[in-house]
Structure formats: structure tokens, C-alpha cells
Fold this sequence. Notes:
Elements: E1 5-6, E2 17-25, E3 34-37, H1 40-44, E4 48-55, H2 66-80, E5 87-91, E6 96-101, E7 106-113, E8 149-155, E9 161-168, H3 174-188, E10 219-220, E11 242-248, H4 250-260, H5 270-284, E12 293-301, E13 319-327, H6 328-333, H7 336-348, H8 352-365, E14 368-369, E15 373-377, E16 395-398, E17 406-410, E18 424-430, H9 432-444
Parallel strand pairs: 7-8, 12-15, 15-17
Antiparallel strand pairs: 1-11, 2-7, 3-6, 4-9, 4-16, 5-6, 8-9, 10-14, 11-18, 12-13, 17-18
Helix pairs in contact: 2-3, 4-5, 5-7, 5-9
Amino acid sequence: METTGQKTSPLLQDMKVTIHKTSMVFPLKQTENKSSFLSNIDKVLNFDVRMVQFFEANKDFPPQIVPEKLKKALEDALVAYDFLAGRIKMNSETNRLGIDCNAEGVGFVVASSEYKLDQIGNLAYPNQAFAQFVHKTKDFLKIGDVPLCVFQLTSFKCGGFAIGITRSHVAFDGLSFKTFLDNLALLAAGTPLTMTPFHDRQLLAARYPPHVDFPHPELIKLDSLPLGFESGIFEASSKELEFKVFQLTSKNINNLKEKAKGNNTTCVTRFNVITAHLWRCKALCGQYDPNRSSTILYAVDIRSRLNPPLSKAYVGNAVLTAYATMKCKELEEGEFSKLVESVWEGSRRMSDEYVRSIIDWGELYYGFPNGEILVSSWWRLGFEEVEYPWGKAKYCCPVVYQRKDIVLLFPPFQGSSEGDDGGVNIIVALPSKEMEKFKCLFYTFLI
């Protein structure tokens, strides 16, 4: 079998990280003090995302030089991205969350590990100890101060290093954060920005008066949306979870596409067949009830779906969760082509009218996405393609935490045999018994 659920030797629990210096980075030039509007999409995503980029040693950029280059690039970047140096606050005039663009800065940490890079284990495996390579934003240098972003550079004994980034999802979605990192890399190399960020989040404001034109079963109503809201599908599991990395090679994906061929060939894309395959495995690995409905959620970039389209340089969150729902019996016994078509329909539903309806729904009900499974794809975001002066990352991954209902898609590790064939790595976290069932279904449905 070409697809494997990777096991690994016991993971290092202590990366032996020492913090040497913590500081703030401020915009290089004076920026305007103002309040920045947050859309209803931004407000729902008020939680942190933590990511680590691992870099091999580069004799021209030893770990002593990289922190200063990165810090200087951040100072430059905070002029164009002035909101990132601000703080999330309730706007007393509008009575809604916004970003106070007050130039209070982003966090910056310099640290070191007692290990060499090749001693910390398989970078593609979700080791929760990688959390030691990122720094939390809460109470960063003083109580009550929560920067929107903190960078931590941790050097290894071999000369390699890790750049760990904690960022508020309010500031960026995955696509706009990738653009930010591209710009940061250009500034670190002394090159001007190639894409100027476009900040006007009012383009995703609710209509007045708001009107909801579609049913939205993928959303759940709340009485209010408190500051620091993080709940629902983002809630951490109290159960002990087992983590596994499953791999699909290009051949596996093409086989799934063959199985998916029906009357509608338009819907048979790589993402749709992978998502449908994971949906079926995840929905059926728990306690089985044939009449239970399973809803899968997956992010859709809405930039090109609006009328007029949003600029590709749009900064902020321009993604919404599409959904598909089926009974477990249909997922188990139905034709795979029907599952794939259902996933495709969820994405196709995201028209300008539907997007505006969701935004207006959020104005009325303070809701958030509601489903059994969320597929979060970093597969095509291209974080591993960011070209810093010291080179591209050897691997890039999020810090994985206790989320049993979130399945993560990533590019394969470049050092593996599947690194260049268009395959995908899939990170799954489940209780042990469910993991065994998931693994069995994963392989069975590939045959």
C-alpha cells in the first residue's frame, strides 16, 4: 500500500529551549492612529494560530544574524501593515470589535535549543512539544497586553533555526498571511514589496438593513460574541487523543478521482475527492447510527466570488466555511461520486448573494460555523515556498493541539519520496479506538 499512517519513535517532550531576549518591534515610520473596522468574518475568527518554519543551516546567515535581519524587516513591514502593530479593542462608538491601530508593536523573541535540527524528530509528525518554538501573545511583556503577532526565532546547535509565529486569525486568513510572509521575505532581502496590501475591510461589511436570503444550517446562533471568543468546533477535546499522519500520493488521489467519476465530471477535483474520502472515514469511525446526519465544513476563498471581486492583495479574512450534509448510511453505502458532488455543491453555493447573506446573518445572530468535521487545508497556501534570504523552510507546520474534529491537509515533507509528486499529508487526531477504525476505513475505501 502506497498510503501509510506514519508511526514514529517516542517524541521528544522537552526541546530544551532557553529564552534569551523578549522585546517589541515597532513600525519604522510613524503610522496613523486610527480604528480599523473588522468584518463579521474577522470577528468570528478571534483566536490565535501558531505556526513553525524550520530552516537548515546557511553559512551566510548564521543564527546570530537572522534575528536582526528579521527584526528590521518587521519594522519595515509594520509601516505597510500598520494594523498588525495594533490591538483588538471594543470600539465604544460602534459597540463592536475593531483593531486600534496604535503602533504598540508585535512581539519578538530570541531563543536557542540544546538540540540539533536533525535530533528533534520527524518534522512532519505533529509533536505537541513544537509549541516550545512559539510564544503566546497573552500578557506578552506586561499584563493585559496582547499583541496580534509574536515571532520567536530559536537557533539549534547545528546552525539551523526555527521561526515560530503566533498570530491572531483576526489579522489575516491563510492567503493574506502567505502574502505577508512573501513581503516580509522581500524586505529582509532589501527588496521593495511586490504586492501592496489592500486594507479596506468595509468591503465585507453587512448591508443596512441586513437581510438573510438563504437558510444557513452551517451556522449556529449565539446571543453575543464575547471578546476572545473561542468555542464550538474550535473547542479542545478533554479526551486523550492519538495523532497520526496519513499520506495520499498522487497515484492514490488519481485513483479516488477515477472512483468519483459519475454524471458530473466538473466536480471531480483533487480537493473534492480528498475531502469526500476523509468525510466518510471521519463520520463512520465513531459510534455508528445510520440515520445520524453528518455535516462537513471546509474553507472557501471568496475573493473571486464577489461582485465585484476582491483584490488578491486583500488583507483580512476572505474565507467562509462551505458545508455538505449526508446521513451516515448514505456515506457508508452511497456511490463515492455522490459524496464528491455534495462537497462540490457546498463550494459552488458560495455566490456573491450567498456570501452577503452569511455576512448579514452574522450581524443579526453573532454565530459561528457549526459542523461535525472541519477540513483545514494548508496544502495549497504555499508557506513552504516563501523565499527568505536564508532560503526556503525545510518544513512548515502548525502547532497541533487537541482538536478531534479538525483534519489538517499539508504538502508532503520535501525529503520524502512523495515530496514532489503532488501528494498530500493528512493530520488526524482521535481517541485511540476511533483512530483504529478511521485507519481501517481510510485504507478500505481506497481499494
